[in-house]
Amino acid sequence: MNIDIKAFEFEHKGNKFYLCLMTADVLAEISYVARRGIDEEKGAVQRILNKSRISGIKDFLLNNGFFPTNIILNIIGSEKISYNEKSQTLTLEKSPRIAQVIDGQHRIEGLKEAIKVDKAIHNMCIPTVLANNLTTESCAEIFVSINTEQKSVPKSLIYDLYGLMDISAKDFSIERGTDIAKILNTEDTSPYQGYIKFPGSRKFKGGIQLSTFVNSLKVLVKSDGEFSKYSITTLETQASVLKNYFNAIQSYYGELWDSLQNPFLFAAGFTASIDVFVNKILPICFANKKFKEEYLKELIIIPKDKLLKQTEVKGLSGESAIITIKNRLLTYLQMEDTSEDDFEI
């Protein structure tokens, strides 16, 4: 059985491709996965399926989700596809396993699972690019280009877009906190570079567990959190403001910052510093419209002979250590009048 689909033909590196909209039921029927290292046929470049991703895509589709980006298939067999340039019509044999999946295997499997629950999904139109009899080398080149050359974005950037959409915002505080942790843990200008302990990272004394870091930031980054209250909404700006704050504190510690005498490299110190930031520093910075590191150094002044050391809170309970560090930080705080200048971050 053949089907006719409106399609746009284009050429890239000597290969012809066809861009079209294909219904989910046709896509599910004709496609299959050829996995590298398992299947010996030409074009086998796919990885083993991730069941949790499939489940997540199924749930996404059942909650009115859709795919705005295309799936890429490689038709096997020249006789199974033809194109009428005048009518811009692609004629395709509607048979099982005639199209290898180059990109989109998890989306297709998610579609199959969603159709089992809601039959109406089989009519969903999916953007699809079809190729014909590509070599394994060409399939691999496309796969590598999509999965390595195109840089993935932090998951929590979805959080930034909810304000533009007429839907209720999911709580992305964990994702946003994790994304900020990644930035502060990797950037050369971050005082916490290498000091945030992600799962599987090397063991060392001191440092902040990722769970502690994320839990401390929740009050800031949740949808109705403190950052939102002060119109600090993007990932880059939130990470920059926090980095400026901790750089200001680090500037007084100098080389001592990287020692086990630095209380801010431990959970209690980090938690206390975030508490002071939320309740005191952030409101002052917003009132003065200044968030730069230079301003924060003027706002927080720590005399060299009054540096808080980890030995001062060692042996205290977690809560007592947090209160001690918080109270000491508050004594370093300089109060200023507000300004009408533009924001400085």
What is the straight-line distance between the termini? 62 Å
Which residues form runs of ≥5 with pLDDT under 50?
Answer: 337-341
- Globally, the shape reads elongated
> SSE string, helix = H, strand = E?
EEHEHEEEEHEHHHEEHHHHHH
What does this structure look like?
By secondary structure, this protein is an alpha/beta fold. It contains 12 helices and 10 strands. The longest helix has 22 residues, at 267-288. The protein is elongated, with a radius of gyration of 27 Å.
List keywords for this structure.
single chain, alpha/beta, 10 strands, eight-stranded mixed beta sheet, 12 helices, two-stranded parallel ribbon, 345 residues
Question: What's a quick, concise take on this entry?
Answer:
The protein is an alpha/beta fold. Helix content is about 40%, strand content about 15%. The strands form two sheets. The protein has an eight-stranded mixed sheet.
Ordered list of secondary-structure elements with their pairings:
Layout lengths: L1 E11 L2 E9 H7 E2 L18 H12 L8 E5 L5 E4 L4 E5 L5 E5 L1 H13 L7 E8 L3 H14 L7 H5 L11 H14 L9 E2 L10 E2 H12 L4 H4 L5 H19 L13 H22 L4 H7 L18 H15 L13
Parallel strand pairs: 3-7, 4-8, 9-10
Antiparallel strand pairs: 1-2, 1-6, 2-8, 4-7, 5-6
